[in-house]
Design a protein that fits this description.
Elements lengths: L1 H26 L4 H15 L17 E4 L5 E3 L9 E5 L5 H12 L8 E6 L3 H4 L2 H5 L9 E5 L4 H6 L7 E5 L5 E6 L4 H9 L1
Parallel strand pairs: 3-4, 4-5
Antiparallel strand pairs: 1-2, 1-5, 3-6, 6-7
């Protein structure tokens, strides 16, 4: 009988603690991008042996991401040559990411000669319909790919951004041409992507 009462007390305490944690989380709402960066930083602190990229990589680093649609690996060797390659680190629930994607989609004709890679560490199921929802004109374009960063290589090798979307433009020679965090005017973005 004593064992049964102790078990019930422990179960009740655990249940109440879980409810309080959920309530506290609801009171600490933040922008999805801030939450994502916080998760990245938490992951970074749990793996102290892996350095985080505090400065943007000046040369395109070696990486392995995964195509969201097929799950097939995607590396530096898969990037078509002789054009700018734009890497956009995003969170599918980020309003600024959704807005930038929509504006890029509406201006696809200007982006036909650049490689455009949308990268996220979020669950691929959250990313699967991102372009279909926010950038329909980019779906199935040969120079556009949505990539899953399963091993958090972006923040280890490219850069840890302060905000989403984070944009990185690498030239045909693999040298960083420009980068920025957060929302920018679409005319600026387009000009930098094709420069």
């Amino acid at each position: 009988m004593k064992f049964l009462i102790t078990s019930i007390a422990i179960s009740t305490f655990t249940l109440l603690s879980a409810c309080q944690s959920n309530n506290n989380d609801a009171g600490n709402a933040q922008h999805p991008a801030e939450h994502q960066v916080d998760q990245q930083q938490a992951a970074a602190t749990s793996q102290p042996t892996v350095p985080m990229a505090k400065e943007p990589a000046k040369q395109l680093p070696d990486f392995k991401f995964y195509k969201v649609k097929s799950g097939i690996g995607f590396t530096n060797e898969d990037i078509p040559a002789n054009r700018n390659s734009i890497f956009i680190l995003f969170d599918p629930s980020c309003g600024h990411c959704q807005q930038e994607t929509g504006l890029l989609a509406k201006n696809y004709e200007k982006l036909k000669n650049v490689n455009l890679y949308f990268i996220s560490m979020n669950d691929p199921s959250l990313m699967a319909s991102f372009l279909e929802t926010f950038g329909k004109e980019l779906v199935d374009k040969p120079n556009v790919e949505v990539l899953y960063d399963r091993n958090q290589e972006f923040i280890q090798k490219f850069h840890v951004p302060a905000q989403f979307p984070a944009n990185y433009i690498y030239g045909a020679d693999g040298t960083l041409k420009n980068n920025w965090d957060g929302e920018k005017d679409i005319d600026f973005v387009l000009a930098e992507f094709i420069k």
